[in-house]
Design brief:
This protein is mainly beta. The protein has helices at 2-34, 112-115; strands at residues 50-57, 65-74, 77-84, 91-94, 99-101, 119-127, 130-139, 146-154, 159-165, 169-176, 179-184, 188-192, 197-201, 207-215, 218-226, 235-242, 247-255, 267-271, 276-280, 284-288, 291-296, 303-307, 310-314, 320-323, 328-330, 341-344, 348-356, 360-369.
Length: 374
């Protein structure tokens, strides 16, 4: 009888241990399956590991040096644009060694008087010798000043500008120097064909705050129309497509305090290598055969990448996440970022963030990918 009791006790103990291990494994499996960072897409193709270097941009005797957009033709040719309270220091250039303010009262190459107090919203280029920067400036004196659209172009040698009556240009994208599109605050698209400028009105005050595309006959834009009326203070979001002939609304939704569901995001990025369009706001969305699909359940800001294997986005807590072709992962070793802008290529990433130390400066984070996979 004692032997039977011993066997029974051992059997029960083994059963309990197996049950405990099974339960722990089940919990860990559930945790992994619910983790939004693990959107499985196949084998890893790039690394989540980066080595970081930090730079601070601050124009002399200035209280505000703010960057709103980044773009580069390579990791040794990167532009950072934004606002400065001294009407200088709004455009910076990285040459692979140091940052230089291009709008400078003493050394140029752009004289602040040339810009007349302009501030900038976005920079984009089709090559190192074709760079476009957009924003707005003022003409005249208060209270009789006039707001103007401001568009700058660098052709590899000289900077030129174009001004139109209007509040601001918010976005820019083009397939080449003779096919450039600009989106404004006043419900207008502006097109430049290399010789002539054309303004296309949408007939309503839609702010065109993001543009991207694949070619001259496939361009996309996001627009938002505020009603600014109580109690809802609603906003209509529009998703536009240009087919080479006309701009058309192909999707839209209404956002209010009581209807917070979104169909797509406010920031657009086109992955030309894989012909995939993404948008981001509260989530990352992917445009698939005329339907928006949720690609990731976290995001709250800009999205940018170099391919499906290398995408960056900003979360709602100021953290940067990276998609490497298989999984999303929070980038380590970074401070909490405020109003970040992004640009990258396959090996390097540049991120800007507001740095408030009593005087508002800009922190630039330069990341180099480590242990790259193929």
């Amino acid at each position: 009888m004692q032997t039977k009791k011993t066997y029974s006790f051992v059997f029960c103990l083994l059963s309990f241990v197996l049950f405990l291990f099974s339960f722990i494994f089940y919990l860990s499996s559930c945790k992994r399956s619910m983790d939004p960072l693990l959107d499985q897409m196949g084998s890893d193709t790039t690394s989540h590991e980066f080595v970081w270097e930090f730079d601070t941009l601050a124009y002399p005797k200035s209280y505000q040096t703010l960057v709103s957009s980044l773009w580069g033709s390579s990791e040794n040719d990167v532009y950072a644009v934004g606002h400065n309270d001294r009407s200088a220091g709004q455009i910076w250039h990285w040459d692979g060694i140091k940052w230089r303010s291009l709008v400078n009262r003493d050394s140029g190459p752009i004289d602040p008087l040339f810009l007349r107090g302009g501030s900038f919203n976005q920079v984009f280029g089709t090559s190192k010798d074709d760079v476009w920067i957009v924003g707005g400036n003022v003409r005249g004196r208060y209270p009789d000043f006039i707001r103007q659209y401001l568009i700058l172009n660098y052709d590899g040698v000289n900077w030129t500008k174009k001004e139109f009556d209007g509040f601001e240009v918010l976005s820019v994208w083009g397939s080449g120097p003779d096919d450039m599109w600009f989106g404004t605050t006043d419900g207008e698209f502006i097109h430049y064909d290399g010789a002539n400028w054309t303004i296309i009105s949408l007939g309503k005050e839609v702010q065109i705050n993001s543009m991207t595309g694949f070619s001259s006959h496939e361009i996309y834009a996001h627009g938002i129309e505020w009603d600014n009326k109580a109690p809802d203070d609603s906003a209509f979001h529009y998703f536009y497509k240009y087919d080479g002939n006309v701009w058309q609304v192909i999707d839209k939704f209404l956002y209010t305090a009581y209807h917070t569901d979104r169909k797509f995001g406010s920031y657009l990025w086109a992955d030309k290598k894989n012909a995939i369009l993404y948008s981001s706001s509260n989530r990352v969305y992917k445009w698939n055969k005329g339907i928006w699909e949720i690609f990731s359940n976290f995001a709250r800001g800009e999205i940018y990448g170099s391919s499906l294997k290398n995408i960056f986005t900003v979360s709602n807590n100021g953290k940067i996440y990276h998609f490497n072709g298989r999984s999303w992962n929070q980038l380590k070793g970074l401070p909490k970022l405020d109003l970040p802008a992004l640009w990258c290529n396959d090996k390097y990433v540049f991120i800007s963030s507001e740095l408030d130390e009593g005087i508002q400066k800009t922190l630039i984070l330069r990341g180099t990918m480590q242990n790259e996979r193929r």
